[in-house]
Design brief:
The protein is mostly helical and 308 residues long. The chain has a domain at 23-227. Helix content is 88%, strand content 0%. It has 10 helices and no strands. Helix 2 (32-45) crosses helix 6 (168-194) and helix 7 packs antiparallel against helix 8 (209-248). It starts with a helix and ends with a helix. The relative contact order is 0.14.
């Protein structure tokens, strides 16, 4: 009897693991797009610090990301049981914040120009005291962890949606696996990206002609890659934020789907159709971010006038 019960238990565990494996693969595929945005945004967020402090900061942000997920996974499970209708509004708040942050970055760049960027670099270079450096790094880490919280919330929500029909135990296991694996993948890649220049310098000084050529190529490419990631990270804010907002508003979501179907033209449909939703989500994110930034600046000026 005991042996039979043990075999039944082992069979149940094997079935559970098999189901979890399948659901985890499905969830991973659905979150792959957000994973790319997460990578670009976080690589952008942790740049601009001293080389010797890059990996410690990446590690600090990674720990912050894990803490985010320790909050988000139980919260998502609780909300899915108690108030599933609340998931979409909460996601939309996060999406709106991403759009606002993207608009703020663009406004700062185009309104203040290159001089503001140079001043920021000079300010970072003057951080001689330990207290100033720690304060600068804390600001970087806080910004990266805050952005990670929103992207992690979307990843958790997408994962939860993909396992909606599963048992509670399966949901817990799949969410835990996705949360840990995505954190390891994203911050492992971020760490590798920010240390590319060190790898290039190491290879360039090896003495071998091939290593020297490869190292110099990496050294030349690394700054351009970081600039590209900065641009991609800002675009990702509008794509992800706009996508969250349009998915939360049914008539916009269905309208985008109809426009995507209408763009399936002979010969060019294979190219245009996948791009249409992305472009419309980007436009929605840009518009939402601009409106929120204008509202924020208006409220700030009013408060300033009242204070004076």
């Amino acid at each position: 009897m005991a042996a039979g019960s043990l075999l039944t238990l082992l069979d149940d565990i094997a079935t559970l693991l098999d189901d979890v494996s399948v659901m985890t693969k499905v969830a991973a595929k659905k979150t792959a797009g957000v994973l790319g945005d997460d990578l670009a945004l976080n690589a952008q967020q942790v740049t601009g610090v001293r080389p010797s402090r890059e990996l410690p900061i990446v590690w600090a942000v990674a720990k912050g990301s894990l803490r985010n997920k320790l909050i988000l996974v139980p919260a998502a499970l609780l909300i899915s049981v108690v108030a599933p209708w609340l998931i979409t509004p909460l996601l939309m708040v996060g999406g709106a914040y991403l759009c606002f942050e993207g608009a703020e970055k663009l406004a700062h760049k185009f309104l203040h120009g290159k001089e503001a960027s140079k001043a920021k670099v000079r300010e970072a270079a003057k951080l001689d005291s330990k207290e100033e450096r720690l304060a600068f790094e804390k600001d970087k880490i806080k910004g990266a962890v805050r952005t990670d919280f929103i992207l992690s919330a979307e990843i958790i929500a997408i994962t939860l949606g993909s396992v909606a029909a599963a048992s509670f135990t399966e949901k817990v296991v799949v969410l835990a696996i996705i949360a840990v694996v995505i954190t390891l993948v994203v911050y492992g890649l971020v760490g590798a990206i920010v240390k590319l220049d060190d790898l290039g310098l190491y290879l360039a000084e090896r003495g071998s002609r091939v290593a020297e050529v490869v190292g110099n190529a990496i050294l030349k490419a690394a700054p351009w890659l970081m600039k590209l990631l900065s641009i991609v990270g800002t675009i990702a804010m509008f794509l992800v934020g706009g996508g969250i907002l349009t998915h939360g508003i049914p008539f916009l979501h269905h309208g985008i789907d109809r426009l995507a179907d209408a763009s399936d033209l002979p010969g060019v449909g294979a190219i245009i159709q996948p791009l249409t939703p992305m472009l419309l989500n980007f436009a929605a994110g840009l518009l939402a971010g601009g409106l929120l930034l204008a509202l924020f600046e208006g409220v700030k000026r009013l408060r300033g006038q009242k204070a004076s």
